[in-house]
Amino acid sequence: MVNSDSSPPPLLVATGLCKSFGGIKAVQDAEIQVTCGSITGLIGPNGAGKTTLFNLLSNFIRPDKGRVIFDGKPIQHLPPHQIAREGLVRTFQVARALSRLSVLDNMLLAAQKQTGEKFWQVQFQPLVIAKEEKQHRERAMAILESVGLASKATDYAGSLSGGQRKLLEIGRALMANPKLILLDEPAAGVNPRLIDEICDRIVSWNKAGMTFLIIEHNMDVIMSLCNRVWVMAEGKNLADGTPEEIQCHPKVLEAYLGK
Ligand SMILES: Nc1ncnc2c1ncn2[C@@H]1O[C@H](COP(=O)(O)OP(=O)(O)O)[C@@H](O)[C@H]1O
Ligand SMILES: [Mg+2]
Fold first, then answer.
1. Of 23, 80, 82, 220, which has fewest CB within 10 angstroms of its CB?
2. Ligand nearest, relative to CA of residue 232
3. How far is the CA of 46 from the centre of ligand 2 (A)?
4. Best substitution site from 24, 25, 92, 231 to test ligand 1's pocket, by max atoms within 8 Å of Cβ?
5. Hey, what CATH topology would domain 10-97+176-257 get?
6. For residues 54 and 242, is the Cβ–Cβ distance under 8 A?
7. What is the mean pLDDT, run by run of 10 residues, along the chain of 259 residues?
8. Would you say 59 and 76 are in contact if contact means Cβ atoms under 8 Å apart?
9. Alpha-carbon distance 3 to 154, whole Å?
């Protein structure tokens, strides 16, 4: 499970990221790397700056300073939708499914490059659009199958449980055909049986070639899934290493157990 020494190249490299909110230094000179094909973990006590780091990587919040290279290109100046088009998508700590739409429609909204969005193409290319819609539908159903939600396709997203919403969020991320998915606490508020299912599915998507960066408080999830783990505390990098190294790292133990 752990990467060999001849590691593949990094897919994401962020360096020197800083973000303050008023007087609060949420992220201070943070760095992170995600190797292509890995499941990388990001952990740290509450308020460590993990979600803010995700927001900086995906430019949902503009960094005060710092550089983000994704797939060999600087992306820190691109708007979030363009970053998603480059192949970096994220999910949210609180799942953001549109509850009054069906599960399938939530998936279709997440599809990239919809020809039908452009007015002139609606006028002149109905056949192209119909074909594209059919392809998106088929793809959405295949992904819903892979997240275990195919039988819920026509249900309102609002009727899903917390865990099922997390799966829908991951499904929506997969719909964008990304290279890297950032998952913010995929196991939070999810019942234990569904946590195992989410983990199994992450492993199988990873085996199919998807790279993940995962924030998670559930250490069993982090330890069983991740090749490498980065630790933050008080906005800064504290340590990084294999799950085994991190588990017995004195600074990490101190940050979690208190000084
Ligand atoms: N939009 C915001 N405005 C003000 N403070 C924020 C904002 N977002 C995060 N913070 C603060 O930044 C710090 C890091 O938060 P966060 O990134 O959510 O931590 P984590 O995800 O590790 O729990 C916290 O002190 C939090 O209160
Ligand atoms: Mg958070």
1. 23
2. 1
3. 7
4. 24
5. Rossmann fold (3.40.50)
6. no
7. 61 98 96 97 95 96 96 94 93 73 93 58 67 89 93 95 89 92 90 88 93 94 95 96 93 78
8. yes
9. 40
Q: Are strands 10-21 and 24-35 parallel, antiparallel or unpaired?
A: antiparallel
CA 104, 107, 110 angle in degrees (round to 5)?
155
What are the start-end ranges of the E strands in the chain?
A: 10-21, 24-35, 39-43, 65-70, 73-74, 88-90, 180-184, 211-215, 228-233, 236-241
Q: Are 73 and 86 in contact (CB under 8 A)?
A: yes
Domain segments of the chain: what residues?
10-97+176-257, 98-159
Ligand 1 atom at minimum distance from 55 CA: 17
* pTM listed for this prediction: 0.88
Cβ neighbourhood burial of 244 (10 Å; 0-12, 13-18, 19+):
exposed
Q: How far apart are CA 47 and CA 49, in angstroms?
A: 5
Q: Evaluate whether 172 touches 112 at the Cβ level (below 8 Å).
A: no
